[in-house]
Amino acid sequence: MNTGLAELREKARAVLDPVHYDYYAGGVGDEVVLGENEAAFRRLALLPRVLRGRATRDLTVDLPGGRLRLPVLVAPTAFHRLAHPEGEVATARAAAAAGTVLVSGVASTVAIGDVVAAARSVDATASVWFQLYPQPDEAVTACLVERAERAGCTALVVTVDSPVFGRHRRDAEHGFHDLPAGLATENMRDLPGGVRDIVMSPEVSWDHLDRLRETTSLPLWLKGVLHPRDAVLAVEHGVAGVVVSNHGGRQSDLAPAAVEALPAVVDAVAGRVPVVLDGGVRGGGDVAVALALGAAAVGVGRPVLWGLAADGAAGVGRVLDLLRDEFDHVLALCGGRDPADLTRDLVVTRGRGVS
Ligand code: FNR
What we know:
With 355 residues, the chain is of the alpha/beta class.
C-alpha cells in the first residue's frame, strides 16, 4: 500500500468510532475476497519499456459521463457522514478539485442535489454520477433516477451484485444495523408508496434494466459484473460502461479478486464500451496494472473513506493526489506517455518468469 494512504488509514482508525471503522473496513464472511483484492495486485508485476518516455505525461481519460484528469474515480460508498460531519459534501468538493468523478451512492447521508451543488461550487463543469440499486418497485427506481437527473448528475451507475445483503461479521458482532440519530439516507425521503429503505431483490432482472434505461437519457454503467458473459449481455442491453467489481469484498466471499476477473471481461467487451475496475486499489502501481489489463480507469472506495475521516475534504484530496502522483511516476518508469501506453504485454505474474 502507498505509505501515505496507510498513514491516512491509521489516522482514520484513531479518530473513528471502532464500530464505524469496522463498518468501512470490513467485508463479507471470512473476508477472503477483502484480502484477495489487495493480494492479487501484489502477485502482478509490470515489465517496463525503455527509451520511449515523455517529460510530462497526459493522465486524462474520457468516459461516458465525464472527463477524468486522472484515471481514478471515487467509487460509491455509503454513509460518509459517519466519517466526517460534512460527509459527501466534503468528498464531492475534493473529487471536483482533483478533476475526477464522484460516484455518489443512493445510500448517501447528504441528498444528491446538495452533493452535486458542492462539486459544482468548486468546478462548474464537475461531473457527479449517481449510483443506485434497481428497486423491485420500479416507481421507486424511476423517482430516484429523476432526482439524479434533476440534480445534474451526468451518468447513472446501476449496482447489480447485491441480490441480497452481504453478511458482514464485524457489523453483526458489533450489532451495527442503523445510522445513529441525526443521520439518514437522504435520497430515500418522500418516495412513492412511502418507501424509506433500499430493497435488495434477487428477482431484479435484465428486464428491469431495460425499463430503467428507457426512463433516462443518461449514460448507464453496470457495476458489479464479474462473469464475461454478463459483460456481453450488458453491452447487448445498451450500457455505456461496465464496472468489474466484487463490491470491495462485501457481497460474495467466493468471488475472485477483482483484478483477476478483469482480463476476461475486457476480452468479452472487446472495446465496445469502457471497463472500470474497483477493489483493492491501494497505490498508483495498482492503477497502472489495472489499466495495463484493459481498464479505462479504476475506482477507489475505502481509501477515500480513510482520507475523509482523517481530514475531511483535504484528506480525500490527499488520497487522490497521492494516487495521481504515484501513478504518474509508475507510468514514467514504464516508458509511458499516457495511459494508452500501458498494454497487457507489460503485465507478468510474479514467480512465473517472463515469456
Ligand atoms: C461500498 N460499496 C458500495 N457499492 C455500491 O455500489 N453501493 C454502495 O452503497 C456501496 N457501499 C459501500 C460502503 C462501504 C463502506 C464500502 C467499503 C464499499 C462498494 C464500493 O463501491 C467499491 O466497489 C469498493 O469499495 C471497492 O473496493 P475498495 O476500493 O474499497 O477496496
